[in-house]
Structures are given as structure tokens and as C-alpha cells.
């Protein structure tokens, strides 16, 4: 694509250069630039991409997009905001791929990954090809791609959607984080269905207040249906039991389907029963009743399933097919995942890293606990500090024994994070073991028959970030190893 075409939807600050080279790729990272590329300079949180123009040109960049003066002999186009312009350029370069996909976006504090996996299963069961983008990674059919963020930057996103179109994907399901909405990573994504799971405290380090956090998530709904290039009907699937839905409902132009545990909603669940092997409930939709059986555990998962059923219905999939898919789904990696190595107690690895999710998981565990509950939990560094004492209190209140340990301390002092978790607590059932491996081993060595150990916060993660170094760490592996060691 020619440079002028690529930049044609931007508002240039100064006259666009007269040179019009052929552009063979677009990159925001100088290290990945190849001959013929446009390099976009992003002034980031840690470094300023404008410093890397020389390296980009050495690697073959034939044009630069910048928001600050740069010295180079290749043509430079200047815009006010390169981060937001990058989404427009990416969308142009990859030919607006999402207009050729059914696109489902899921936002909310907890339950996005889980809901995306349920929707994926529903679409697959309907014999259609899926693409998934989220915390655990990106997938096209069964092919897996790694990702650093829950919602990647706009270039990665658009290139991924282009791959999905090439691979003849029918429906793409993606998690849309509040950071992504606020930073414009999803600008240019034409959603057909937007799902809201819930809003509770997280990410106040980034958004500053719950109100700003709520507003950021709301962008998914206010922007839904703004596109003129699609004739398709748009749907917002909203959790009626969450206050924030009222606001999102009034801000969207799309059709709204509400779900929850109240009979006033379009989709509602009652007669919820926790069974040994999962959960069963009665779904009410359009005056019909359906018995839903699933292997997922807990009332919070009933909400996730209701949201996914709403998305399935909006995708025109028959309720019977949707329910078959839900019954089939084995579980989501690192979410309420049982670890079995022949022991006579239960070990559950779960990704709860917010106060609300921890409370939900521990309350669910208490419903079927016959004996003591041990909770091994930590809080991430360089993240919302105010959630730490809340999570500490929830763990101590809802467990026989709480073991506070490190999550990903990142660049913070792990001891200070643990101090934050203990702040204001007078419980005498807290043990602090900074080393996560030792903390898991401690819980497993002390467990008695029928006890339950919950290892919270890192779920599917296979790494631990201490300082800036990343090393292999996997809660499931650690738990298995400790169980085998205990046996001798
Ligand atoms: C605060 C934030 O969102 N930061 C994101 C941002 O990084 P940054 O601004 O620090 O980038 P930077 O390292 O300063 O680099 C600036 C520019 O210089 C370029 N560069 C850099 C080095 C070099 O040699 N050459 C070069 O060109 C970089 O490619 C980049 O374009 O842009 C990066 C690329 O897109 C993101 O990976 C990174 O996410 C970091 C890892 C992060 O932790 N983000 C979290 C807060 C986040 O976004 N989380 C949400 C929500 C999670 C959830 O609850 O679900 C998510 O969607 O993941
Ligand atoms: N609907 C829900 N309400 C409250 N808690 C939930 C819900 N669904 C899942 N959880 C809890 O939250 C944890 C994270 O779930 P999940 O990974 O699906 O959320 P997420 O929104 O994708 O999180 P992230 O923001 O990290 O991407 C689960 O391990 C579980 O403890
Ligand atoms: N998407 C969340 C994941 C947190 C997971 C937890 N293990 C941590 O590292 O804090 C975040 O980036 O805030
Ligand atoms: Mg997620």
C-alpha cells in the first residue's frame, strides 16, 4: 500500500511528505522493523519510541509517523497523537478486517476470559470457526499465538483480525480491557456484540477512581453501533444485577439483552444447585424454561454462562445448541482448576486477583467445604495498591488459615506488598511466607483429609515477575510437586 493511501484518514499536523513509497508493513517496535516498513513512534510509559528512529531506518523503515520532531532522511508524517493514529493506520493497512467477522467484545472486571471460552465453545458447537483474543493468548481455530496483554495494541489486533479473515474465521471473541478502551487500542474494531460481566474494584492505579474506570468500560457500549459500514444488528448484553449496566444501557444505540438472577431480565437463572461435578440451574428466556447443566462451579459462573448464552442468542445460535456446548465445556485453564495427584484433600488453582473474585471463589468453596480451608494468596506489584488490604481481609475472613505470599511483585519490594495486605488486620490465622513455592508447600504439607487448599491470583500463568526478570513458575506444577513430595 502506498504511504499516502495509508495515511489518508489521518489529520496531518504539517503537510504530508511528497514522497510516496510503497509500504510493506507497519511497526511500533524498531526491533521488528523490516525493509519497506512504516515505523510509528510511540511515546510510551517506559521509553519514548521517537528515540528509535535511527534503528528503525537501519532496519529498513522507509517512512516515519511521529508526534515530535525527529531527524532522519526518510519521509516523516507528523500527527498530534501517534498512539491513536496507529489504530487508524493499522485498520487501513489490514483493510478493516473486523467488518468481515462477527466480533464479540467482552468487558468487565472479572469473568472476561471465562465468558470468552464459553462463547468460543458455543460457536464451535455451532460448527463455525472461531478466533479468540485475551489473557491466556490468541487463537485461530486451534492454533495458538502468545500475547503480552489481555487486549493487545491496535497493530497486533488488526493484524490478528486480518489473519482470522484469511483463515475464514466466522466469529472472533475478545476480551476488551479498560486500559485498551482508554488507550484507543480497539479503535476501528467493529463490534457486533458487546458483553458486560461486572464492575468491582481493580486498576485504580491506572484509572484513578471507580468512576473513571466505569467510564472507560462504558466506551465499549457507547461506541457500539456507531459504524456505518455494517448492516448487522448490534447487541449489548448487560448484567442487570450490576449497577453500572443502567448507565451503559442508556449510552448504547444497540439492542439490549439483560441477564442475571431477577425475573425482570431477558435471560434469568433460578433454582441454582451446586453439584459434586458442577452447577445446574433453570434458565428462563422468552417464557420458556431450560435446565442448564455445566461443569463450571459457582454462582459467579452462572453469570458468565448467562452472558455467553446472551451472546449465542445474538449470534442467532439455537438455545438447544448453546446448552449442549455449555454442558460439554470442561473448564477454563487456571480458573477453579482442580489439581489431582492422588491426594485425599482438594487443591484448587484460581486466577482470583481482585477482592470481588477472591470473595466469590472462597464463598463458593465454603459451600462444599467439609473441613479446613487454606488460602494461599498474594497481590501483584506495580498494580492497584488499595485492593491489597481488601484481599487480605477477605482471605483471612473466609479461610481457616490464610497464607500470604508473593504474586508477581514486579518492581516493588515483596515485603511491602505483604505489609499492605496485612494492613489493619487483627486476625490470628495469617501466616506470611514470601516465597510462593514455600507457601504452596506449607499449605500442602499441613493439609488433612478433606481440607481444601485454594491457590489464588496466578491461575494459568507460567511465570513469576520479580523486579524486571521473568522466571518459570506454575501454581499447578508446584502443587503437584509438593503433593508428590509429601507422599515421599
Ligand atoms: C501501561 C501500559 O499499558 N503499557 C503498555 C504500553 O507499554 P509502554 O507504553 O510502556 O511502552 P514502552 O516500553 O514505553 O515503549 C514505547 C515504544 O517504544 C518502542 N520501542 C521500545 C524499545 C525499542 O528498542 N524500540 C522501540 O521501538 C516500543 O515498541 C513502543 O512502541 O504498550 C505496550 C505495547 O502495546 C504494552 O505491552 C504495555 O502494557 C504493559 C506490559 C502492561 O502491563 N499493561 C497493563 C497495565 C495492561 O494494559 N493491562 C490490561 C488489562 C489487564 C486486565 O485486567 O485484563 C491489558 O489489556 O493487558
Ligand atoms: N462473573 C464473575 N464474577 C466474579 N468473579 C469471577 C467471575 N468470573 C470469574 N471470576 C473470578 O475471577 C477470576 C478471573 O476470571 P477471568 O479470568 O474469567 O476474569 P477476567 O475478567 O478475564 O480477568 P482479567 O482482568 O485478569 O483478564 C476467576 O479465577 C474467578 O476467581
Ligand atoms: N490483568 C491483570 C492480571 C493480574 C494477575 C496477577 N497475577 C498480577 O500479576 O497482578 C493485571 O495485569 O493487572
Ligand atoms: Mg482475562
From TrEMBL:
Needs which cofactor? Mg(2+)
Modified after translation how? Carboxylation is probably crucial for Mg(2+) binding and, consequently, for the gamma-phosphate positioning of ATP.
InterPro entries the UniProt entry points to: Mur-like_cat_sf (IPR036565), Mur_ligase_C (IPR004101), Mur_ligase_C_dom_sf (IPR036615), Mur_ligase_cen (IPR013221), Mur_ligase_N (IPR000713), MurE/MurF_N (IPR035911), UDP-N-AcMur-Glu-dNH2Pim_ligase (IPR005761)
Q: What is its EC number?
A: 6.3.2.13
**Motif mapping: Meso-diaminopimelate recognition motif:** 407-410
NCBIfam families given in the database record: murE (TIGR01085), PRK00139.1-2 (NF001124), PRK00139.1-4 (NF001126)
Where does it localize? Cytoplasm
Its biological function?
Catalyzes the addition of meso-diaminopimelic acid to the nucleotide precursor UDP-N-acetylmuramoyl-L-alanyl-D-glutamate (UMAG) in the biosynthesis of bacterial cell-wall peptidoglycan.
Q: Any idea where the Mur ligase C-terminal domain is?
A: 334-459
Residues in Mur ligase N-terminal catalytic domain copies: 22-73
Q: Which residues bind ATP?
A: 108-114
Q: Name one GO biological process term.
A: peptidoglycan biosynthetic process
Q: In which pathway does it act?
A: Cell wall biogenesis; peptidoglycan biosynthesis
Q: Which residues form the Mur ligase central domain?
A: 106-311
Name of the protein = UDP-N-acetylmuramoyl-L-alanyl-D-glutamate--2,6-diaminopimelate ligase
Identify its protein family. Answer: Belongs to the MurCDEF family. MurE subfamily.
Q: Which reaction does this enzyme catalyse, per its entry?
A: UDP-N-acetyl-alpha-D-muramoyl-L-alanyl-D-glutamate + meso-2,6-diaminopimelate + ATP = UDP-N-acetyl-alpha-D-muramoyl-L-alanyl-gamma-D-glutamyl-meso-2,6-diaminopimelate + ADP + phosphate + H(+)
Protein keywords: ATP-binding, Cell cycle, Cell division, Cell shape, Cell wall biogenesis/degradation, Cytoplasm, Ligase, Magnesium, Nucleotide-binding, Peptidoglycan synthesis
Q: Which GO terms describe its cellular component?
A: cytoplasm
Which positions does UniProt annotate for meso-2,6-diaminopimelate binding? Answer: 383, 407-410, 457, 461
Amino acid at each position: 500500500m502506498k504511504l499516502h493511501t495509508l495515511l489518508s484518514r489521518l489529520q496531518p499536523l504539517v503537510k504530508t511528505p511528497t514522497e510516496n513509497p510503497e509500504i510493506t508493513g507497519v511497526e511500533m517496535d524498531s526491533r521488528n522493523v523490516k525493509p519497506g516498513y512504516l515505523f510509528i513512534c510511540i511515546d510510551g510509559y517506559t521509553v519514548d519510541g521517537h528515540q528509535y528512529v535511527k534503528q528503525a531506518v537501519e532496519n529498513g523503515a522507509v517512512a516515519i509517523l511521529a508526534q515530535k520532531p525527529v531527524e532522519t532522511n526518510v519521509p516523516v508524517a507528523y500527527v498530534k497523537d501517534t498512539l491513536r493514529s496507529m489504530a487508524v493506520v493499522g485498520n487501513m493497512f489490514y483493510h478493516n478486517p473486523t467488518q468481515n467477522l462477527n466480533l464479540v467484545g467482552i468487558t468487565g472486571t472479572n469473568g472476561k476470559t471465562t465468558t470468552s471460552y464459553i462463547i468460543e465453545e458455543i460457536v464451535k458447537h455451532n460448527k463455525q470457526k472461531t478466533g479468540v483474543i485475551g489473557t491466556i493468548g490468541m487463537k485461530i481455530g486451534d492454533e495458538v499465538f502468545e500475547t503480552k496483554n489481555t487486549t493487545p495494541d491496535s497493530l497486533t489486533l488488526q493484524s490478528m483480525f486480518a489473519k482470522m479473515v484469511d483463515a475464514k474465521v466466522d466469529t472472533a471473541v475478545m476480551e476488551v480491557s479498560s486500559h485498551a478502551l482508554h488507550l484507543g487500542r480497539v479503535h476501528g474494531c467493529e463490534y457486533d456484540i458487546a458483553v458486560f460481566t461486572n464492575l468491582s474494584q481493580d486498576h485504580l492505579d491506572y484509572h484513578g477512581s471507580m468512576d473513571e474506570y466505569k467510564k472507560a468500560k462504558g466506551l465499549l457500549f457507547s461506541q457500539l453501533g456507531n459504524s456505518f459500514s455494517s448492516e448487522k444488528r448490534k447487541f449489548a448484553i448487560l448484567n442487570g444485577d450490576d449497577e453500572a449496566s443502567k448507565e451503559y444501557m442508556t449510552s448504547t444505540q444497540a439492542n439490549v439483552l439483560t441477564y442475571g438472577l431477577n425475573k425482570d431480565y431477558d435471560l434469568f437463572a433460578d433454582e441454582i444447585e451446586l453439584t459434586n461435578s458442577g452447577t445446574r440451574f433453570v434458565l428462563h428466556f422468552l417464557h420458556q424454561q431450560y435446565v442448564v447443566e455445566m461443569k463450571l462451579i459457582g454462582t459467579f459462573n452462572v453469570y458468565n454462562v448467562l452472558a455467553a448464552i446472551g451472546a449465542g442468542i445474538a449470534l442467532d445460535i439455537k438455545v438447544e445448541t448453546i446448552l449442549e456446548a455449555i454442558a460439554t465445556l470442561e473448564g477454563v485453564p487456571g480458573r477453579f482448576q482442580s489439581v489431582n495427584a492422588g491426594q485425599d484433600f482438594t487443591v484448587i488453582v484460581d486466577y482470583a486477583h481482585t477482592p470481588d473474585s477472591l470473595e466469590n471463589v472462597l464463598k463458593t468453596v465454603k459451600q462444599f467445604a467439609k473441613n479446613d480451608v487454606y488460602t494461599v494468596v498474594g497481590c501483584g506489584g506495580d498494580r492497584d495498591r488499595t485492593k491489597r488490604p481488601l484481599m487480605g481481609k477477605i482471605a483471612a475472613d473466609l479461610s481457616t488459615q490464610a497464607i500470604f505470599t508473593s504474586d508477581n511483585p514486579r518492581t516493588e519490594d515483596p515485603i511491602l506488598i505483604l505489609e499492605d495486605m496485612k494492613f489493619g488486620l487483627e486476625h490470628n490465622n495469617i501466616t506470611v511466607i514470601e516465597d510462593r513455592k514455600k507457601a504452596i508447600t506449607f499449605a500442602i504439607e499441613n493439609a488433612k483429609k478433606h481440607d481444601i487448599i485454594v491457590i489464588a491470583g496466578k491461575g494459568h500463568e507460567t511465570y513469576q515477575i520479580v523486579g524486571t526478570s521473568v522466571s518459570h513458575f506454575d501454581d499447578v506444577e508446584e502443587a503437584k510437586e509438593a503433593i508428590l513430595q509429601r507422599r515421599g
